[in-house]
Specification:
alpha+beta; 4-stranded antiparallel β-sheet; Chitinase A, domain 3; 16 helices; Triger factor/SurA peptide-binding fold; globular
Length: 468
C-alpha cells in the first residue's frame, strides 16, 4: 500500500494513468519533477545594505510568500508541500532545505497558474468525478473506500483537502487534454518512419515492446512488522520456487494471490511494456517466455511474475490482447447533471441484469455517441486506445460483465466487455502503435513548452521568503 501522502503528492489518480501510459497529466512533486517544473525564476537578489542589521523579529509562520495573478501562496502551503515531499522521497533530504523550499515554491506557482487557466477556460470537475477518482485510488491500492479514508485521516490530512487535491489533478488533466494533447498530430508517413527507425535500433524502445505477464501478489499490510514482512517474503519465495519447479501457475494464483486479477489466472494482458509498472519490466527484461521472475517488492507486497508472451512491434509475431467492448454514453449536458446521468445509467444496468432490457437496444435509443447505431459497439480495441478513465474500468471487466457508470472527460459511460482475444497486429495496427508512441513523445515535449509559457504569462509577485 502506498503511503497516503504519496498518493496525493505523486498524483496516484492519474496513475489511473500509470496504466494509461501518460494520457493524463500527473502533477507529481517528486524531487525530479520539481527540478523539471519549469524555469527557475525567483525574486531579485536583495541589495546589500550599509545600515546596521535590525534585531530579529519573532513572527507568525503563516504569511504570504507570493501572489500568482493576485492569488496568494502562503508559507503554510509551501512548508506542507515540502514536508510531504521529504516524507515520500528520502532523496529530497539531500537537497539543502533552502533550495528545496525555493523549488517547491516555483512548482506551486506553476500549478496555480495552470489551475487559474483551467478556471478561465470554464473547465470544471463535479463531485461525482471526484467520488470516482477517490474510489479508483482505493481500488488501485487494493483497499476499501472506508479504509482509504481512515488512512488519509491517520496521516493528518483532512478529507476535504484530499478531495481538493483530487479535484486539482482532474482539472490539470483536462486542461492538458484541451491545450496540448488535442493539438499534437502524427501523420502516417511519420509513424512509418518511426517504426522503421525502431526496427533498426539495437536498443529497443520499451513503448514498442509488448508483454503479457501474470502475477501472484503476496500483500504486505501497511505498517507491517518485520515479522509480517519476513513471512510474506518467505511465502512469495516458496511460490516462486514451486512455479519454477513446474507447478501450474494459474493454480498458484488462485490459491495464493491477493490481487484482483487472480480470477484470470493472474494474467494482466498483452500490452506495451510502458503500460506495466517499471518494476515488472525491469524484473522480466532477461526472463524468457514461460520463465518466472521474482519475487520483487513493491509498496503493495511481493510479486511473483510469469512471462506469458513477449513481442516487438514491427516484428512478424507482434501480438496484443484486444477487447471487444460496447458502451452507452450520456454527454455532459447543461440540462442534466452528472449525478442524474449516473442515476440513469445505473437504472439501465439494473434493467439489463434483470433481463427486462437489452444493452444494444438501450444504446441505440439513448447513447449520445456515434456508436449508437451499432448498439454501442466500439469493435475490437487495443490497450491505450481509450481515455484512462474508460480503459481502467474496462480492464477490470470479464467478458459479459457491465461496469457501474463511469465518468470521463466526455460524459458518463456504461461499459460492457463482450469478448477478449490475443491477436497478431496487422501492419495498420502496428502503425497505430508507433503513432501512439511517437505522439506521446511529442505530447511530453509540447507539454513542457506549454507549461513554461503559462508560467511566463502569469503575473508573479514575490513577498517574503518561506520559513520553516
Amino acid at each position: 500500500m502506498k503511503n497516503i501522502r504519496s498518493i496525493i503528492t505523486l498524483g496516484c489518480l492519474a496513475a489511473i494513468a500509470a496504466t494509461a501510459g501518460a494520457q493524463g497529466y500527473r502533477p507529481g512533486t517528486g524531487i525530479t519533477d520539481i527540478m523539471r517544473a519549469g524555469p527557475r525564476l525567483g525574486p531579485p537578489p536583495a541589495r546589500p545594505s550599509t545600515a546596521p542589521a535590525a534585531a530579529p523579529v519573532q513572527r507568525s509562520a503563516e504569511f504570504i510568500v507570493a501572489l500568482v495573478n493576485s492569488e496568494p501562496i502562503t508559507n503554510t502551503d509551501v512548508q506542507s508541500r515540502v514536508t510531504r515531499l521529504i516524507k515520500e522521497n528520502p532523496d529530497a533530504e539531500r537537497v539543502p532545505r533552502g533550495e528545496l523550499t525555493r523549488l517547491v515554491l516555483e512548482r506551486l506557482i506553476t500549478e496555480r497558474a495552470q489551475l487559474q487557466l483551467a478556471k478561465e477556460n470554464g473547465i470544471k470537475v463535479d463531485e461525482v468525478a471526484i467520488d470516482q477518482a477517490e474510489q479508483t485510488v482505493a481500488r488501485q491500492n487494493e483497499i476499501s473506500l472506508v479504509e482509504l479514508r481512515r488512512r488519509v485521516a491517520a496521516e493528518g490530512i483532512a478529507q476535504q483537502d484530499f478531495r481538493n487535491d483530487l479535484r486539482d489533478q482532474l482539472l490539470l488533466t483536462r486542461l492538458r487534454d484541451r491545450e496540448v494533447e488535442s493539438k499534437v498530430k502524427v501523420s502516417d508517413a511519420e509513424a512509418d518512419e518511426y517504426l522503421r527507425d525502431q526496427r533498426n535500433q539495437s536498443v529497443k524502445n520499451v513503448a514498442l515492446e509488448n508483454l503479457n505477464l501474470a502475477q501472484v501478489l503476496v500483500a504486505v499490510p501497511e505498517n507491517a512488522t518485520d515479522a509480517q514482512v519476513a513471512a510474506a517474503q518467505k511465502k512469495a519465495q516458496d511460490i516462486a520456487q514451486r512455479a519454477r519447479a513446474g507447478e501450474d501457475f494459474a493454480k498458484l494464483v488462485r490459491e495464493n494471490s491477493d490481487s484482483p486479477d487472480r480470477g484470470n489466472g493472474g494474467a494482466i494482458g498483452m500490452r506495451s511494456a510502458d503500460r506495466y509498472p517499471s518494476l515488472f519490466v525491469e524484473a522480466t527484461q532477461s526472463t524468457a517466455v514461460n520463465g518466472i521472475a521474482g519475487p520483487v517488492r513493491s509498496s503493495a507486497g511481493f510479486h511473483v511474475l510469469k512471462v506469458l508472451a513477449k513481442a516487438q512491434i514491427g516484428s512478424g509475431d507482434a501480438t496484443v490482447t484486444q477487447t471487444q467492448v460496447r458502451h452507452i454514453l450520456l454527454l455532459n449536458d447543461p440540462k442534466r447533471t452528472t449525478a442524474q446521468a449516473v442515476a440513469q445509467l445505473a437504472e439501465f444496468k439494473r434493467r439489463i441484469q434483470a433481463g427486462t432490457a437489452d444493452f444494444a437496444g438501450l444504446a441505440r435509443d439513448n447513447s449520445q455517441d456515434g456508436s449508437a447505431k451499432q448498439g454501442g459497439d466500439l469493435g475490437w480495441s487495443r490497450p491505450g486506445q481509450f481515455v484512462p478513465e474508460f480503459e481502467e474500468a474496462m480492464d477490470r471487466l470479464s467478458p459479459g460483465q457491465i461496469s457501474d457508470p463511469v465518468v470521463s472527460r466526455f460524459g458518463v459511460h456504461l461499459i460492457q466487455v463482450v469478448a477478449r482475444r490475443d491477436s497478431k497486429l496487422s501492419q495498420s495496427e502496428q502503425r497505430e502503435a508507433a503513432r501512439a508512441a511517437l505522439r506521446e513523445q511529442r505530447v511530453e515535449e509540447a507539454f513542457t513548452t506549454w507549461v513554461q509559457e503559462v508560467r511566463a504569462r502569469a503575473y508573479v509577485e514575490y513577498r517574503e521568503p518561506p520559513q520553516s
